[in-house]
Structure formats: C-alpha cells, structure tokens
Amino acid sequence: MKALVCPEPFQFEYRNVDPAPLKENHVLLKIRRIGICGTDLHAFEGTQPFFSYPRILGHELAGDVYDWNGNKPQHGERATFIPYFNCGTCIACRNGKPNCCATLNVCGVHSDGGMVEYFQVPNDKLICSDLSYEELALVEPLAIGAHGIRRAQVAVGEFVLVVGAGPIGLGVMEFARIAGGQVIAMDINEDRLEFCRTKLRVPFTVNASRPNAIDTVREITAGDMPTVIIDATGNLRAIEESFQMIAHGGRYVLVGLQRERIGVVHPEFHKREATLMSSRNATREDFDKVMDAMSKGLVTPTTYITHQMHFDELAGRFPALLDPKSKVIKAMVSL
C-alpha cells in the first residue's frame, strides 16, 4: 500500500509498504479523508516536541471499516477513531484520564500515523457514525477544544479569551460559546480574526500585534479582564504575555504546546490567586460531545476547510501550507 513518509524535517516521500498483519482486537480502516493539523505542520518543519524521524504523519482520519479481528462492526461502516493509545494501568488511566497516560502513544506522533491507504486501530478506539467523512476527520481537533473548555469549567456569561485562531483555537471558541461564555478571539492574523467574526460570529476580536491590545481586552471586559484565558498558539511569547490579562481569581489553560520554559512574574500571578493548567488531547466524552454538537447543527466544522487536495498531491502541496499567504485554516486530503 502507498504511504507518505516524513524521513526528516522538510522532506516527504511516497513509499510502498507492506501492511502489517491485523492485530487481535483491531480494525482495519480504508482511509478516505485526512485532516492536516498543526502537529503535522510542526513535525514537517521539525518543531514538534516528542517527535522522532522517520515518521508517517496523520491522526485526523476518517474511513470505512475494511476488516476486523475481534468484535465485529459492520463491514463498510463509516468511522473515525480516538488516536491516543493508552496503557490502561498507569495512575492517569486508573483515574479516568487516558488522554494523559504516562506512556501515551499518539498516532502520527509517537508511532506511525494514517497518511496511508489502510490503517489499523484498536477496536476500543473505533467510533462509527453516519456523519460525513469530512465531519469525522474533524472530530478529533474539535474534541481537543471541547476538552480545553471542560478543563476550564467555563460558566455562562464569563469572558473567555482564546489566544490563537487556528483550527484548535476555533474549536475552543465554538465550545466556549456552547458553554455560554462570552468569547474574545485574539490573533495577529487579521484574516483569521475576520473568519472568527463572519463565520463563527465571535462577538469580540483583538489583534494582538496592536500596541493597545491589552487595553482593548480591558475595555471589552469593563476593566475586569477575562476570567478564562486559553492559549491555542503554542507560541512562547504569546503564552507569557497572556499572564498579564488574567482576571483576579481567573484560570489559564494551555492547550498549545511549545518546547521552552515558561516565565511568569510570580507576585502578579500570586496576588490573583490564578490557576494555571494544561489541557492534553481529549477523552471519549469529548469526542461524543463534539459528534452530538455536529449532529444537532451547533457546530459546522466543514466551514473550516479552506484547502482540498488528493493524497497523490499532498507531498508537493504540503510545504505551501506553512506559508501564511496561503490563508489555510484546515486542509483536507481525500483518498
């Protein structure tokens, strides 16, 4: 079968690989759609933590059940899956947090992913649905946003500042809105802020590159500042600057990920009795919430798809997705 391999940063090559024998209690999917996410882009450019090469990327996947070993779903059934393979025995797993398993294996990061024609996944990670292939391929990134909002425990009426208007940030905004929060979108890309205003109907947008950005946030919140800030940039400068905008008693959730140490002015953080937490991946509860929201029309994730291409084009077109001039929000690959 054909696979797209990243042997080292800034390189892709198609290879014919022999499919592994189907493991016990696993399902073989015929891949139909692959969503390109920030993890894939960062891996390609060599800036993704926890990463080694060569690697087959891809974990935002949708396909058809092609074969199975163990419990039997219907042949040809449309499906996606939870791409976080956990041990089931560590303290996180025992406490119902498989998303941050001590030995977590994330498909397409720690092990080879789904930029292939066929891909096998554990039966207990499979999710079958009547949603479209495009919707199914977008469940995982939206689930990350839903999980971040659940971590923040967003309450009705409170201001939620989401820093970063990429696909993950957009998902955070969607589920902050569903939770009843007043969403403020912040980014340095005016095109993405315009997308937030026109497509997601986000009521407040702030360009972080403007010298009065913090004052604008203060004005929006009537001087209180946001009680929830969620970073979806994975950018050190953006993460550190956001500490200045936490309301007294507020919560700061890091969904984005970067490599360096984070610096904080301790007295400023301490006097606010602020809470800092991370949000990693998502759980089945988050996946179910996203799919229910899609089914009810509360979110329309296909709006995010700005670029479409065939698998055979992906290697040639992938580098352009790194260029801000491409104005990509979500690229979708078909097989």
Class by alpha and beta content: alpha/beta
Tell me the number of helical segments per DSSP (H or I, 4 or more residues long).
11
Order of helices and strands: EEEHEEEHEEEHHEHEHEHEHEHEHEHE
Percentage of residues in helical conformation = 25-40%
Shape: globular
In terms of DSSP E residues, the strand content is 15-25%
What is the number of E strands?
Answer: 17
Distance between the first and last residues' Cα: 12 Å
Task: Average the pLDDT over all residues and give the rounded result.
Answer: 94
| Main sheet: strands, sense, barrel | 7 strands, mixed
Radius of gyration: 20 Å
Structure description:
With about 325 residues, the protein is an alpha/beta fold. It is built from 11 helices and 17 strands. It has helices spanning about 40-45, 90-95, 135, 140-150, 165-180, 190-200, 215-220, 235-240, 265-270, 285-295, 310-315, and strands spanning about 1-5, 15, 25-35, 60-70, 80, 85, 105, 120, 125-130, 160-165, 180-185, 205, 230, 250-255, 275-280, 305-310, 330-335. The strands form 4 sheets. Strands 3, 4, 5, 8, 9, 16 and 17 form a 7-stranded mixed sheet that branches. A 6-stranded parallel sheet has the order 12-11-10-13-14-15, with helices on both faces. Strand 4 (about 60-70) and strand 5 form a beta hairpin. The longest helix is centred in the middle third of the chain and has 14 residues, at about 140-150. The chain is globular, with a radius of gyration of 20 Å. It starts with a strand and ends with a strand.
